[in-house]
Specification:
Shape: globular
Distance between the termini: 44 Å
Number of strands: 0
CATH architecture: Orthogonal Bundle
CATH class: Mainly Alpha
């Protein structure tokens, strides 16, 4: 089994490593909160639902699911809007892939460009998030469709410290944070 250290919590990281939908939800939540907080979200959902099942989430009552996501500690700093996004993502995966999240990168033996296209089609996934997730698949989940590094752009670069795709321990987390801080500072200057 693939071993991840995205959260720094053994159970949360094991869930992410073993459940493609949980990993996809973690990436969805990775905005406006620290990376490890975002990727802890799927475990919070799993703990409250007795697992993280794409079908159950897609079919859940929206108000009840929003309450589940809002329960302290909340799944995200914006739990209501993220609950809607998580359910939209689950519904899309059920509709497009029969609930098989890994089908995004396995169905029809797609190349890196096709996987990127499929990721960008997901609710809540734009170009950058899709490229980061593709890099995460390639660098840490052993999913290597032809041309994945090129499709992931600079996030696929060997040895980079740009995103969650590069976090393997506390040191690499600190390096990614420093990269993001420097990039933000540079953007403010321009």
């Amino acid at each position: 089994m693939v071993k991840l250290n995205l959260v720094g919590d053994r159970e949360a990281d094991e869930l992410l490593a073993g459940d493609a939908f949980a990993l996809l939800v973690g990436m969805l939540l990775d905005q406006q909160v620290p990376m490890e907080t975002a990727f802890l979200g799927p475990k919070k959902i799993a703990d409250r639902m007795g697992g993280i099942d794409v079908h159950r989430i897609a079919e859940a009552d929206p108000d009840e699911f929003a309450t589940l996501c809002s329960t302290t500690p909340a799944v995200h700093r914006f739990p209501g809007s993220m609950a809607k996004r998580i359910q939209a993502l689950a519904a899309y995966i059920v509709e497009a892939y029969g609930g098989d999240t890994a089908g995004i990168w396995t169905e029809g033996d797609p190349d890196g460009r096709e996987v990127l296209k499929r990721l960008k089609a997901l609710p809540g996934y734009g170009d950058q998030k899709a490229r980061i997730f593709l890099a995460l698949l390639g660098k840490q989940i052993d999913v290597h469709p032809d041309g994945w590094r090129e499709a992931a752009g600079s996030y696929g670069d060997e040895g980079s410290r740009r995103s969650i795709a590069d976090v393997v321990d506390a040191d690499s987390l600190a390096e990614v944070r420093e990269f993001k801080r420097a990039a933000k500072a540079a953007a403010k200057k321009s």
